[in-house]
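FORM 7B - TANDEM STRUCTURE REPORT

SECTION 1: FIRST PROTEIN
SEQUENCE AND TOKENS:
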Amino acid sequence: MASFCIPEGYDDGQYNGLLSSCVLSIAEVGNSDTSLDCVLEVMRQSTDFFDYYLGDSSHEVFVPTLYKLAGHRLDKLERRPEIIEWFREVLNFSIEHVAEAKAVDNTIAASVICDLIDLQAVELLPEINALFDTEMVDLCHCGRRSEVLDDIVNPDYSGRLDDCILYIHQRFDDLQRKFDRR
């Protein structure tokens, strides 16, 4: 695995979008196999690396990029039972350990719930209710229980990917506006 370092004095106070720009460009001009490998390698780096190069922008950078590079491989219907069982295991672990806030905290629990909204995982409503019963779910992140349950069973819910910006110029401009400190 490649290891990246943070150069001393590299940040001059302006938006440092070098890595973001590279990942955005790979999504536009790369091929799905080798480019996906490069993006996944970047995603394997340390937390310090992510904090320095991406700050809070990793979702805006990686989700649309991964969708563009690997979206054609996503056949959720074929693997849905496997995905649901994996989430069932995650939920049961979360229910058991969320109060300790060691392996799972309230924000991670809420993030899992957001993914289940996107999947419209009606099969997991009992586990989702049990997780809410722990009172250790970040409601600011995923919403109140009634909203979550409504979003899961509502077939008109479009999911977060529809909110992703897939046009490179708009993606870069938004990142620059968000992080430029001039």
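SECTION 2: SECOND PROTEIN
SEQUENCE AND TOKENS:
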Amino acid sequence: MKTSRKNEDKRNYFFELYLNDARIKGEKSDFSLLYILTRRTVIFLLIYLFFTVSFFFVGNFQSFMDSNLILIANVVSLTSVALICFSLAGIIEIFITVLRKSARKSVFSYLINIFLMAFSFAIGIVCLIAFRTIDILSQRM
């Protein structure tokens, strides 16, 4: 049975959820393309940080070599720095958007985005401090 491309896109829920921006649907978005790319980068870095941290702890239980654990700790630290920078850029972009546009109809959307960026910023700070401490302590021994 042949279906049109339009019907296939309607059935593809992952496509709809992942690319659910107003620009794709043809509507005008409150957020700029730069912010949308920043938000997706923050989400990617947050997921990557989660898996790298879990890989570090699994490696501790599986007795990885110390040099491998130090390498993973350095990767977590670099990922945390990138996450902090992009989260801070996202927060600044939201504030600029709010000041530039007086779109009060989507205040809830702005608050959710600020909360998510602040949460990822805090996670990045905590992971950076923890893993730099681990790296410093492991170098001393």
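SECTION 3: OBSERVATIONS ON SECOND PROTEIN
Confidence is low (pLDDT under 50) at residues 13-19.
The radius of gyration is 20 Å.

SECTION 4: SIGNATURE
Preparer initials: ____
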